[in-house]
User: Fold this.
Amino acid sequence: MSKVMITIEEQIKKQQEKLAQLKARKQAIEARDRASESKKERANDTRRKILIGAMVLEQWKNNPESEAETKQALDKFLTKENDRKLFGL
Assistant:
């Protein structure tokens, strides 16, 4: 093999290594973006639950029948003992 071929082969190898590094960097960035989006969605889901809960509690104050209906539905829905105790079930 000539010296020129060796140099070209070395350049190709260096470029392939650089490409592999860039691909790994891209994957890391994409994984971080997915994790960030997932964290945002969990926070939004928690906020929705809190707001819905606040609305239901407000309805209970104004309408005792609403509380009874909700507790009836919760009785069927909740299975964990600690969760059931929160609502006196």
Remarks:
- The two ends are 83 Å apart (CA to CA).
- Residues 3-63 form one domain.
